[in-house]
Each structure stands twice: as C-alpha cells, then as structure tokens.
Design goal:
Number of helices: 7
Oligomer: single chain
Strand order of the largest sheet: 4-3-5-7-10-9
CATH topology: Rossmann fold
Distance between the termini: 26 Å
Bound molecules: zinc ion
CATH architecture: 3-Layer(aba) Sandwich
Strand content: 15-25%
Length: 214
Amino acid sequence: MRTDSQIITDLMAAGVVETGHFVLGDGYGNPGLHASEYIHVDRLQDSLPLYSECVQRIDERLGDLGIDFILTPDDTSKATARFLARYRATRFRLPKLEYVSAESDTLRPGPARVLIHDDVLHAGRMVHELLWRIYKNRYEFVGISCLFHRNEGETMFGLPVFPAVQTVFKAVHAEQCPDCTRGLPSTRQYGLAERTLRESWVDENLLPVADTTR
Ligand SMILES: [Zn+2]
C-alpha cells in the first residue's frame, strides 16, 4: 500500500483534493465548519486508477472482516459501495456482497453484519440518523468505511472507521479557523449554501463562501 502522502500528491494533481479556505455546508444549505481542503469525489470517480486504488485501500483495511452487506446513508456513496463490494467479492468469492442505499432501497431485516459506507465522513450526522432509523432491523454494525474523513479518532459512535486515506481533512468552527483569523476570504462557492450566503452575507460586504455538505 502506498503511503498517504504519495496518494494525496496524486489526489491533488487530479484535482480531487483542492486546497484553499472553504466553508462547508451543514447539510441544510447553511454554512458550517471551515476547512483547508475541499474534496471532489466526482473527480476521483473520473480518475479510475486512483479511485480503484482508494477502494482497494478500504478493502485491505477491512481485512477479513465478515460483512453481509454494505449500507450507504444516501445514494451519493452507492457507487463506491458497489465498487467495494466487487473488490470483496473477488477475495471472498460467493455469496456476493450486496450494497444498498438506505435512501432508495428496501432494507431487508436482520440479522446481518452490516458495514456502513459514506464517501466523505464528516460529523457523521447522516450515519447517526441512519443508525437511529434502522436500529430495529437487528443488524450488527461492524464498522464505517469512507474514502476520506474529517474527524480525528479511529471510531465513530463506537464503530471502527476504515478510511481509504487516513489523513484527516480537518474541519473547524469559524472562530477556530486560522484563515478567518488572518482575514482571508473564502476560496469558492459550492453547492447548496450558495443562495443562502448570497442573500445573507453579500449585503454585509463579505465574499460568498464555499459550501458543500461534504
Ligand atoms: Zn475560515
């Protein structure tokens, strides 16, 4: 397995990891935490060898952990879950590992050993909602996998975290943000919060900021 810094160099060259001063969304279209790296998962998916390497890294970290199916909180992470399932299938043969999205698929009842996958693991809000929503299904949750994560710590909600890239792309509150302290404007606008920000912040003569739910 290549080192994190080797793979991050490639991720930056491919535009997957962009550096700057970003304001991440809170998932509801409002500005949330600040970060020095923005992650473009779509660009990773366009760069197949790199994407494949990342998925393989998750697979290797999972080792021989027994998993009945992979569950994603929403549809956006489903492509990676499918890819991961294919990797596991080549190593463990049948029965083929399933992958489902809690958003669009019918969840089968347990008992089952379930891995949750979220492409970019942030505060874990979606994962927490998912755990809460399906706790009655008698699943045994074996861990959380992700391509990238923004949290320090090897566990989340008591579950082990298996990231493709172990480096934490940390996000902090505005008052702890070194770029804000230095008065640097945010780098770029992204996604949902853009409209909210334009309405509420531009009037105050602040540059619109970047947003992502990621
Ligand atoms: Zn900031």
